[in-house]
Amino acid sequence: MPGAAMAQEAPSEEMILRRLDAAPQRQVAPQNRVTINEFKRRPELRRAAPSIDIQAINFATGSAEIPRSEYRKVRQIAGAMERILRRRRAVRFLIEGHTDAVGSAYSNQILSDRRAASLKQVLVREFGLPARVLDTVGYGEDYLLVPAERDEWRNRRVTLRRIDDFVR
Length: 168
Description:
Helix content is 36%, strand content 12%. With 168 residues, it is of the alpha+beta class. It has a single domain, classed as CATH 3.30.1330.60. A 4-stranded mixed sheet has the order 1-4-2-3. Residues 1-7 have low confidence and may be disordered.
């Protein structure tokens, strides 16, 4: 259902805030924290971090550009992150890009990297979030929500994670 992505409702700022400000599913002692690159490679740590999937930002097929018409949705993300930043000065967020399984794994990897970077760029340039609190990574088609080799809008998403409890 290609039109389903257009009907996908964006989560509210309050919902994003609740999900990202939640306690992690597991505690990591300060001496056991990892580098950001190690965190990106460890799915068990990523799953334990507070997170929310955002499927509502509509990217054009094969594009990483976030159209201005989508900025209202990005504003909800920025507002929640800004509120957390006011309370947690050492906060860090990871923006993960994901794609569906259409196309080559290589092109999907590049596209997911670019989509995560594009969201970071909009959050920094348009909404004033400090770049230092935002890291990005693309996972391409590695973590499909819906196993499908076809065009599946639920797999084209960004995942936001609050990672300051895991990285040094």
